[in-house]
Amino acid sequence: MKHTPLRNALLLACGIVLLFLIFWETYLRSTGIGISYDDGPELWTHKRSLVTKEQDRATVFIGSSRNKYDLDIETWRSLTGEDAIQLAFEGTSPMPVLDDLANDHSFKGKLMIDVTEMLLFSTNPEDSRLAKKGLDYYKNITPAQWFSFQVNKPLESQFVFLERDYFSIKALLKRIDIPTRAGMEKEPLFPIDFGRISFDRQNKMSDKFLKEISIQDSVKNIWSYYSRMGAKQPPPTQQSIDSLFQVIQEDVQKITSRGGKVIFVRTPSSGVFLQIEQQIFPREHFWNRILSLTGAPGIHFMDYPEQQLICPEDSHLSPTDAITYTKSLVKVLETEKGWSFPNKIKSN
Amino acid sequence: MVFNSYTFIVFFLVMMGLYNLPISWKSRKIILLLGSYLFYAAWNPPFILLLWLSTVVDFFVGRALYTQENKAKKKLLLVVSLIGNLGMLCFFKYGGFLLDNFVLLVNALGMDYHPAKPNIILPAGISFYTFTTLCYTIDMYKKESKPVKSMLDFSLFVTFFPHLVAGPIVRPPQLAPQFESPKKATAQQIYEGLFLLSLGLFMKVVLADGMLASPADTVFGAQKSLHTLDAWLGVLAFSGQIFFDFAGYSTCAIGVAACMGFTLPENFKYPYAATGFSDFWRRWHITLSAWLRDYLYIPIGGNRKGVFRTYINLMITMLLGGLWHGANWTFVVWGALHGLYLCIEKLMQDRFKKNAVPEDASAALSGWKKNIPTGFFKAMLVFFLVNVTWVFFRAPDFTSAWRLLIAMFSSVTDSIVVLTSLDVLVVTIVITVMVLFHWRMRNTSVLQAAAKMPAWLLGIVWSAMLILLILSQESSGSFIYFQF
């Protein structure tokens, strides 16, 4: 039988591709890197679609990355017998998601809003970009996109190399050290050990990150970079902040009037980060005001000694401290805030 | 659904399995048709009704047009078809645009009229399948081809999933007869199809989305005056992005069709190697250019009604061609610039013909010309001028377009840099390689070139494309031309 060049080329190509992927996957695993999910609009949309279906036995979490690091979902499940639907976005204001839930008449469940002041009270549109992208995808998802997600899910759970944030061509190219152009500041890249992401959208620091101070410092430098960038933006006016409070009040009112429950949570921060936050966003002008204006309860980590934990890079908790924090959170919710978890008895 | 998705991979494998079942040709065609509807409905199911409506109306109108001998009735039928097809296109694609311009006009006349903004969703591929059905009815009117015998074959002609959403725009004689007799892809067709599918996905996912989309978006989205280098690189990035995106889609479409034993017309032929603007339009979106030539330029007179009318006809064709791409005046300006280029080119050609040098001198000149690469310089000039037109094509409004053009052609004080060193490097390398590759390949095709390569080398190239494709994981859920 005569073999055409294309047939032989195809066989050779398949062989090379297979060998390369085996090598690449084995190499990545040998460096200690585990599975991490792509936390794009697809996964967020999957979680958002669970809100109405599971609201009787789940709490919805919105906010920024602190929620994603500090809430240990397994601990939450084991203590409450309920699920935690994580809808927070890294580095993003929760306002677009709060608006979406407030205007979703089918949502009557429990909502926990993470208050990271510099994001919640931000009027910079860039701080809402990821949330708007996620919402846009959720509202316009096509059957084909839904199906692609179902196919992608088992693949991502098996192969490390499918992690887009670190191992896509673009991500690999970004890590090449090229001199920066005059007039530009190089955008810093988060170290891979800072956040491994589960299918529940929980972020966890790796053991290596917790051991190596230099990696923790590199993340602290990233906070400094964003702080410098933020300082270049015009500060929000009092009027814009007042109107933001107004929107939060209206949104909370919409949810509670339907029978939903809303609680604000100030998750821990420490070190220089905390000092800056306290300076720019004094508690009495922001935290106290939001509670008095909305009438919703709140849990501030400074009010509970067991929640005053040290963040390795000043802003997020380690996986072990996330368990401690989540246990305290559930305890406060039950004992002080009147939250009950009816499924707890059944499952425990 | 889009070719660059897991859904399509599953769909394609299932379709290949079902299509090759040992059952009757009619049953296989029904499978193909149902699959095509599924392919379309996977994007937005309700719009499948529009596709059905268009198919049913044009099948019966087309047949009536062919058999009708009464000229008045025949014209009436043609008008019905044109109103049906173009009316649908106008409503969905130009409804908002027409209303906006009407409001601007009446407000300028002093009337205070502010209607609610219509919320019209553009059905994917409507411009493409409308042109496909339109050319069928016009052909029937002119008796240029015979009516498709069965509704099944006609539905497949309109709906066949590889070309449905973004072309190539097929003519009845190019595709409809292929459904008449049983088809089975040969092994060679399958290998060629898979190669083209890999190449098309590589162009779309790795080059368009992975390498060029981000710098182009950054530059065209900038709200401030840019540094000249950034402005140029952004425009060059877009010129590459739109080529790799659209030519990538067409290559995938041709490859997928080949895997099933069908042949779709070529849609791109290394356009950035064009040495003139008429040459450019013979290489860029070939099926649309040919459609506009045969169903618009020639019917309005072409070059048969004198020099002046030829220029007018060229401009009308290109203006409407621009508007076909999108309901925005920026697209009209893009078309106008191309029309202007074509007119100037024609004017120069006519002048040169008049002032033709004597044969002996001409021979001496051509000998001299062989020593300098004039063709390549011409191609670079065309590429440069085409890039200027892309500014209007991509910019969201005229303010952004002017700001970018000013940055490209003058040194602006207080300009900002937005592209990283990596962006500069990637765009420079990709665009340079693209232009050289177009020039090298301008008189051949990728399959011809592949056939000449040793299998081991082709295998390495193929595997490199696949590896980069798998590692890219960076793909938008759409193709640029889906919005047109």
SSE string of chain B, helices as H and strands as E:
HHHHHHHHHHHHHHHHHHHH
Shape of chain A: globular
Q: Describe the biggest sheet of chain A? A: 5 strands, parallel
> What's the total helix number of chain A?
18
Structural class of chain A: alpha/beta
The oligomeric state of the chains shown is heterodimer
| Total number of beta strands of chain A | 7
* Broad shape of chain B: globular
Q: How many DSSP-defined strands of chain B? A: 0
Distance between the termini of chain B: 16 Å
Radius of gyration of chain B, CA atoms, in whole angstroms: 24 Å
Enumerate the strands of the largest sheet of chain A in spatial order, edge to edge or round the barrel. 2-1-3-6-7
Contiguous helical run count of chain B: 20
**Percent helix among the residues of chain A?**
40-55%
Average pLDDT of chain B: 88
Note the main sheet of chain B.
none
Biggest interface and which pair forms it? A-B, 46 and 52 residues
What does this structure look like?
The complex is a heterodimer of chains A (348) and B (484). With 348 residues, chain A is of the alpha/beta class. Chain A has 18 helices and seven strands. In chain A, strand 4 (196-197) and strand 5 form a beta hairpin. In chain B, helix 9 (187-221) crosses helix 18 (421-441) and helix 10 packs across helix 18. Chain B is mostly helical. The mean pLDDT of chain B is 88. Chain B contains 20 helices and no strands. The chains are: A alpha/beta (348), B mainly alpha (484). The interface between A and B is large, with 46 and 52 residues.
